[in-house]
Amino acid sequence: IDVDKPVDLTNCDREPIHLLGYTQSFGCFVALRFDWIIAYSSANTVDYFGAGSDEVIGSPLKTWIDAQTLHDIRSAFQASTITGRNERLFSRHIESTGVSVDLSIHHNGTFIIIEFEKITENRIPEDSFVRSMLSQFQRYANSQELIQNTAQYIQFLTGFDRVMVYQFLPDGAGEVIAEAKNEQVDSFLGLRYPASDIPKQARALYLKNLLRVIHDVDSDPVPILPEASDSEDSIDLSFSTLRAVSPIHIEYLKNMGVKASMSVSLIINGKLWGLIACHHYSPLVPSYFVRTELELFAEIFSLELSSRLMREREQESNRVRNVHNQIMASIGSEGSLISLLEKQFSTMRALVHCDGIAAIIDEDYRTDGTAISIDWVNQLTRYLNRQASSEVITIESLEKVLKNYDTGSEKVAGVLAIPVSKSPRDYLLFFRNAQTQTVNWAGNPEKPVSFGPNGSRLIPRSSFALWQQTHDDRCEHWTDVDIRSGDSLRVTLLEVIIRHFQERSDMQL
Ligand code: BLA
């Protein structure tokens, strides 16, 4: 990011976070050419090989690694060229220095990248916990239980102060939908964060590389040597396990008071559905083994979640089908279409939660529950007719579309409208009353950045204090479920109309 340019959130989206030229200090990094000569290394090789990077760069890897481990690294590299993923070796020794390490091996398109992480004493017992987590899945009755219990289990296993499940919303903002935490820290449950907190290129990277960790926001990143003159020539660290993260994000975490962070991607149908996001208030990095297990777990968890969400959707369409059958079974030939619909008002209300229902057909207006007056309905249908759509239309604030409308004593604020004929259109209308609505944002979402002491330097916002957005003139949000139910009902009604007229013309014959 050019720090002299004026602040613009799209700058954020352009920071090349995979080309920053630094690693974090909890491991050692080497990049080899195809002849297995070290071309680049992190500046901290002395802690691993007993030799500085000036000595290491230009030397063959075998100078520093014993024959057996070298052989394993080569096999792992072969495997990674087939799988396209990082291959891993655990609990190896570097003989010359006696250091025990876990290793990650991959090819970045240009170089063979090998990363070493020292194994520390206080590592978590290393039996596979994925299996035990999977065995719990069947105990959870629904997707929400699955999500909540998973947060709890991960918090227990990793010891992070806070483990959240963060779900992206259609506009890119996100919400903490489950949380497990240590008693000393504040709860973030239910808080919403704007899309700009996780810029585009980061989301794109997180689709490919599923796990990232920031072990200590106060630890200086380690340069990769020789240093590139500009980021274009920097080594691509997209799949590096030690990649130093964006200084902007480090500042964000510092503003939050967080010292260490880890997040794992949840991908459903090829899209970033959410993250398992973890915070710690002192430096922390789970061992590479534990991170490897978590990554695997997150993939299986995403599949389970996806199938649960699908099943829950199916249950909902069963409900719709039942209503459909009920309505179809009750169609007779007698009476007008509107009185036929009126008889089904209560059945239809069970499908779309509302405060009132109405139908307007050939200027005949019938209602049940709170609805707006015929004058307003006429204005509303004129508006709806202009929408040039044969699909369900939802409005959450009638004030926004009707001239001089105010919810008045009826309090009707929103409508879900189903067109039931071609123009001039007739409609089935579900009304909802105004309801005070509060969205809890962590800080003002319109001010995701602020200015630093030196003018236009971009700084993520420093206040995460609860910032409430309240609306009094709107109805409860029409959800995807409401819209899908409305759309199925539209199809049912078309069938009803056809049948109704068929039976009437049959009678006339
Ligand atoms: C990355 N931002 C991230 C990440 C998260 C968040 C989870 C992934 C890295 C990690 O695991 O820490 C955001 N963290 C959150 C949110 C919560 C949380 C929403 O715990 C809620 C509880 N950030 C800004 C602005 C910019 C920005 C204004 O606020 C840009 C100008 C940038 N965020 C930013 C960047 C990354 C990031 C560049 C990528 C970091 C990297 O992987 O290098």
What can you tell me about this protein's structure?
The structure is a single chain. This protein folds into 2 domains: 9-310, Beta-Lactamase (2-Layer Sandwich); 330-435 and 474-508, Beta-Lactamase (2-Layer Sandwich). It is built from 13 helices and 22 strands. The radius of gyration is 30 Å and the shape is elongated. Helix 6 (143-158) runs antiparallel to helix 9 (288-329). It is α+β, with helices and mostly antiparallel strands. Strand 7 (162-168) and strand 8 form a beta hairpin. It has a 7-stranded antiparallel sheet, sandwiched between helices. A 6-stranded antiparallel sheet has the order 9-8-7-13-12-10. The chain has helices at 9-14, 46-49, 53-56, 67-83, 130-134, 143-158, 200-208, 247-256, 288-329, 337-343, 345-349, 374-385, 480-508, and strands at residues 22-23, 28-32, 38-42, 87-94, 99-107, 112-118, 162-168, 174-181, 192-193, 211-214, 222-225, 260-268, 271-280, 356-361, 364-369, 393-395, 412-419, 427-433, 437-442, 449-452, 455-460, 466-471. Residues 12, 15, 17, 164, 166, 174, 176, 188, 193, 196-199, 202, 212, 214, 245-246, 248-249, 252, 261-263, 275, 277, 279, 448-449, 458, 460 line the site of biliverdine IX alpha.
List the helices and strands and how they pair.
Elements lengths: L8 H6 L7 E2 L4 E5 L5 E5 L3 H4 L3 H4 L10 H17 L3 E8 L4 E9 L4 E7 L11 H5 L8 H16 L3 E7 L5 E8 L10 E2 L6 H9 L2 E4 L7 E4 L21 H10 L3 E9 L2 E10 L7 H42 L7 H7 L1 H5 L6 E6 L2 E6 L4 H12 L7 E3 L16 E8 L7 E7 L3 E6 L6 E4 L2 E6 L5 E6 L8 H29 L1
Antiparallel strand pairs: 1-11, 2-3, 2-6, 3-11, 4-5, 5-6, 7-8, 7-13, 8-9, 10-12, 12-13, 14-15, 14-18, 16-17, 17-18, 19-22, 20-21
The structure holds biliverdine IX alpha (BLA).
The site of biliverdine IX alpha has 31 residues, from strand 7, strand 8, strand 10, helix 8 and strand 12.
